[in-house]
Request: fold
Amino acid sequence: MDCVLCKVIGIKNLTVYEDDRIAVLLLTKGFTLGHLKVVPKKHISILEQVDDDLLNYMMIVANKFASILFETLGLHGTNILVQNGVDAGQSIPHFSIDIIPRKMNDGVNLKWDANKASHESLEGMKEILIEALDNSQAKEPEQVEEKPIEEIKSNNNEDDNYLIKQLRHIP
Amino acid sequence: MEQPTQEELKNMSPEQIMELQKKNCIFCKMIAGEIPTYKVYEDDKVFAILDINPGNDGHILLLPRDHYQILPQMPPDILGHMMVIAKKISNVMLSVLKVRGTSLYFEIGDAAGQKAPHVMLHIIPASADKKILQPESKEQDKDKISSLLNSLRAKTGYKVPGEKLKPAPVEKQVVQEKVEEKPKVPEERPEEKKESSIEKSKEDIDLDSIGNLF
Reply:
């Protein structure tokens, strides 16, 4: 297995908690100090491939660890983020829920430009999504396209492999 | 709506204040149908609407139907259900909106960007042109990481399994038999006891015990 996260899970030098299904890892290179990743031990690429039970459990663990970080680091807040797919910033093709410690004015760029959408565009979008959600309820979730995963793999440049570099640095 | 005076506020119980917050919550009013929304999904636990100020087109807010101010107050079953519905919505975005990714995002507290006093999950279709929720990763101070690693492990009770700390189940049985048969072997006993207690403490870790730690 070439996956960097699978390697880190196996080596355990950044693990702060694990059980038979998941591991919680501390990043040495993260958005802020204390950035954690909740990851499935099994190699799963994207959100759409995670089964409901596991996803449910991962989120509950993430919520607990957000509170643990809050206490441990004396934080002012936390973010829980899933970067799902290459265009969402997912750099490693192994699904994770990220917990990001926040302090007032820490300068982390997690804001976005929001422009008021027109009534017409919102109505149009609403119709599209309602129809698609109705269809997805009627049948099993659609087969996930392989394309996003391929993209992530081919996009594995040097910077994406920071976790591999971490392996050598950690005491 | 009538608002209580300062004097009345002072005399209110925490429950009454919670009730007041709920009455004043704009999202609760949307869920109750008192304010119009672009609703795309609802069930008995959650409610999904289009954000009228989207980060990218198709930006959805997924809310618990009941009023919870911050994420840690959410019951696990509702939180889990929210994620499962979020997955469904994300899946639909990938197939219908032809995007190559989605961001799922919770804000807990002002410092994390939380503006409304009602828990919500942002589900935002990704765009190749407009990157959002992708801050830069920075190398963190090694000493701080090392000490944080220790504090977090201490809180969860996690120990890195090493050879010494992880006797195979068969050996454990042998150890117990040894102790029973030959109680007069003082050299071996302390270490064996230590091993099995560590093994036990590892087995005991569950989420409730983590929860009780704070």
